[in-house]
Amino acid sequence: MSDIIIDDAEFLFAENVLSAYINHLKNACSSMNSLLFAAVTYAINDFEICEVLRARQGEIQGIWMALDSLSTDVNRSARTFIHEIDEIDNFVY
To answer: What is the gyration radius of the CA atoms in the chain, in angstroms?
Structure first.
């Protein structure tokens, strides 16, 4: 057993902060993909440049999907951890 003591509220706060950062990164990915789409669709007529930008769109979409998976994992892990703490501490409210 570890000597670290974690307060439920502190743990939930940290999980919420992490989730907020992940959501900001997901929003940044979505915004970047929207800009790249607009550039390819409306602004740039060079085939080679458009191919590079489309490749970047795919990479950014992959990052977005990884962040989405991470968000789900963080949420599930946090809820599981809190549930385990609640079972162990036998707190009477």
So the answer is: 20
Residue pair 22/71 in contact by the 8 Å Cβ criterion: yes
Domain boundaries, the chain: 8-87
Handedness of CA 77, 82, 3, 17 (dihedral sign): positive
Q: Tell me: the pLDDT tens digits for 18-63?
A: 999 999 999 999 999 999 999 999 988 888 999 999 999 999 999 9
Distance CA 93, CA 85 (A): 15
3-state secondary structure of 91: coil
What DSSP character marks residue 3? Answer: S
| 78 neighbors 15 (Cβ within 8 angstroms) | yes
Would you say the C-alpha torsion 84, 88, 90, 93 has a positive or negative sign? negative
